[in-house]
Amino acid sequence: MGGAEGKFRVMLVDDEPIILRSLRAAIPWDELELEVVGEAKTGDSALKLARELSPHMIISDIRMPGMDGITLMKELKADQARRIIIFISGYGEFEYAREALREGAFDYLLKPIDHDELSETIAKAARTLEKQIADDQMLHSIKVLSLLARERMLTEFIEGNRSPLQHMQWLEDSELKHEYTMAVIQLDHYLRLNELWSMDEKRLWLFAVRNVLEEWSLQHGGLTVFPFRSGEWVLLFPSLSQERQEQIGRELVQLIKQNTKLSCSVGFSSSMAGIDRLGTAYEVAVRALYQRFYSGEEGVFLGAPEAVMETASEAKYPKHLESLMVESIRTLHKERLLELFDETKAYIEEHGFNKEMTERVLLEMSVVLYRQFEHMKVLFEWSLEELLQELHASDTLQQLMAVLKNHFSRWIAESRSGQSKDNIQAVMNKAKEYIAENYQKDLSIEEVSELADLSISHFCTLFKGATGYTFLEYLTECRIQKAKGILLNTDVKVYQVAPLVGYQDPRYFTQVFKKITGKTPSEYREEAITKA
């Protein structure tokens, strides 16, 4: 509701003081959870007072000196269309009252006032206001969830998770059936920035970049824009020529620098069609961004068409080994990674790669593996440039593999050391404390993983190992335990408990509570009272 103590605000309007006193005294306002916030004796003064007090409900005489009730209602409805007006009418004013109903009055009652009837009408009006608020909250939630679901769905497709979401009916008419181009924007030196920013500063900067990109995308025909990883955003456009990609890329680099003073680079995919190609589009765009390590920062890099990529590599790039290496780094399994380097060496020898081809494959693989450390946020004072320079200076395959083994063995060892059991437990305790302090808010796994300074996937793995729960399971359990305490130890109404523990929809809260406890919140409270 609104107003003090969550009550709806009511204003009384009548030119007879005795009627105003009667309305104040005879209606059980507290019982109806309503608050009379003002009174007026004329339509003109009522309009002025209503604009100051913003009442949810107005009970007014229909005939008053000066501005009459219907004119007052039209003015008030122009300010707030959903405001409820109840009229009190004299016996000789049926036509006037009928007109009032046509113009949007909630109801009208005849004088002399039957206070029981008026109380019932007011209670009905209050229920209407509650439904309006619930509908508004539901609509807002649906809009927010729709946007989040769309972003989450696109993210899952990019990550290669062909979930049941792809069978949702609305996807059949998706604009991604037609050819599109993906742009991936990455902030330059993001790891360094991440160390300098506080959590609030980081959230502010990333929010600022997203706002800039969303506004630009809306004005320039973008299909969608959303953050994919920290310091990285994905934009989708209808299919773009290479000339247009370069133009847009330069505009985006300049736009972000101009509005946020941050440096970024943009990688483009070739044209794709179909939502199931999002993962491929992302891979092409990100591989285009790898050129940044050779040509410098703050650039626009175009991905080669898929057919060209396949022809150039003749399917020789060991993608299957790369995937296994990424998993080894994710789990910090040094021994397995070294075995995979040996398999890579054997693969290169088997396919007879020349020096140029070997160096290109290992350089690209190094960048991919380094990025996995970035995503896990376990990098220390490491230099990718130093690794690439050492690889470039190596003359033999044996020397190249030795450089890779030396660097990545050391990095995994340092990561393990930095993630000792005590350290992990401390980070997880910090995350649990944050959840305990903020469970009543719209808390996301992104927010908590940022607090822990871990990637979402790495945080999920560590959190499940430390608590035995997924993040959502733990948050839900925390909220339900808090709700139990409120139900048992306070007189707070059941529907008011939901927002206190992080649920904006009381019906959804009831469903979750019953799923966890086997009882509705009301049943849980009543059973506790009975036992006591």
SSE layout and pairings?
Elements: E1 8-13, H1 17-26, E2 34-40, H2 43-53, E3 57-61, H3 69-79, E4 84-89, H4 94-102, E5 107-110, H5 115-158, E6 179-187, H6 190-196, H7 199-219, E7 224-229, E8 232-238, H8 242-260, E9 264-268, E10 272-273, H9 278-289, H10 292-295, E11 300-302, H11 306-313, H12 319-330, H13 334-351, H14 355-376, H15 384-393, H16 397-418, H17 421-438, H18 445-451, H19 456-467, H20 471-489, H21 494-500, H22 506-517, H23 521-531
Parallel strand pairs: 1-2, 1-3, 3-4, 4-5, 9-11
Antiparallel strand pairs: 6-8, 6-9, 6-10, 7-8
Helix pairs in contact: 2-3, 7-8, 12-13, 12-14, 13-16, 14-15, 15-16, 20-23, 21-22
Can you count the beta strands?
11
Radius of gyration: 32 Å
Query: What's the CATH architecture of the largest domain?
Result: 2-Layer Sandwich
Give me the CATH superfamily of the largest domain: Reverse transcriptase/Diguanylate cyclase domain
Rough outline: elongated
Number of structurally distinct domains: 4
The CATH C-level name of the largest domain is: Alpha Beta
Distance between the termini: 32 Å
Helical amount: 55-70%
H/I helix tally: 23
Percent range for β-strand residues: 5-15%
Going by helix content, strand content and strand pairing, the class is: alpha/beta
Q: Return the CATH topology of the largest domain.
A: Alpha-Beta Plaits
- What about the largest sheet? 6 strands, mixed
Overall average pLDDT: 81
Question: Which stretches are poorly predicted, pLDDT < 50 over at least 5 residues?
Answer: 1-5, 163-173, 307-315
